[in-house]
Design goal:
This protein is 49% helix and 15% strand. It is built from nine helices and eight strands. The chain binds BIS(adenosine)-5'-pentaphosphate (AP5). BIS(adenosine)-5'-pentaphosphate binds next to helix 1, helix 2, helix 3, helix 6 and strand 6. The site of BIS(adenosine)-5'-pentaphosphate (AP5) has 36 residues, from helix 1, helix 2, helix 3, helix 6 and strand 6.
Length: 217
Amino acid sequence: MNLILLGPPGAGKGTQAKTIAAKYGLLQLSTGDMLRAAVAAGTDVGRRAKAIMDRGGLVPDEIVVGLIAERIDQPDCRNGVIFDGFPRTLAQADALEATLKQKGKALDAVVELRVDDTKLVERIVGRFTCAKCGEGYHDRFKRPKVRGVCDICQSTEFTRRPDDNAETVTRRLMVYYRETSPLVGYYYCKGTLKEVDGMGPIDQVARQIGEVLGRTK
Ligand code: AP5
């Protein structure tokens, strides 16, 4: 199964992608994570992407399409992939369709997470991540069970993303509505779009996605 999780910044794509990937044996491919890894490694792609990401813009299509085309050829993608944060433009969506077709694969569903803007800002500004294993948390909605200690790896170091501030979030939302939201209509016309209310608690949203995907298979 190959899926896309579509939705604005903070909608819960990364959070839900991990659950779905574990449940269905899929590989989560987050272009945001791939780009952040490139920035941390100081690669040419990372150097080109950093300033754009810090100000909440979109990295050029040819860079992200190249990253994905290369990655989905690897053996761990054989059982299927969940795309998290990709595609983000109509050009990326066309490129993904062509790449999958060329490799004899297809897209099974596009799950759109719908969340109001005020909630998105609240979710993003409160987000933090374990510096060691990458587990995601939130100041209000998902705190570690023991304060200051990661539930998964017991590390006591956490990080916050440089683009998770109120000013950049507003820009990221505008970019989403201008560049990415047209994909809702694009996938609706292709018959693959599934809408899910992303406003409720994490477990409730996960259950709704499970129901939608259960009807897809
Ligand atoms: P990326 O990393 O993809 O960021 P994003 O799309 O802005 O999405 P986020 O990671 O902010 O949010 P999310 O929906 O994953 O929410 P999460 O689950 O973490 O991209 C970053 C940048 O990279 C872009 O701005 C761009 O520059 C570049 N880029 C990436 N891909 C690109 C592409 N394809 N083309 C061009 N440029 C690209 O949840 C957020 C918080 O809320 C967490 O703390 C979580 O615990 C909490 N939470 C989640 N769900 C719930 C819930 N139901 N209830 C309560 N809290 C919840």
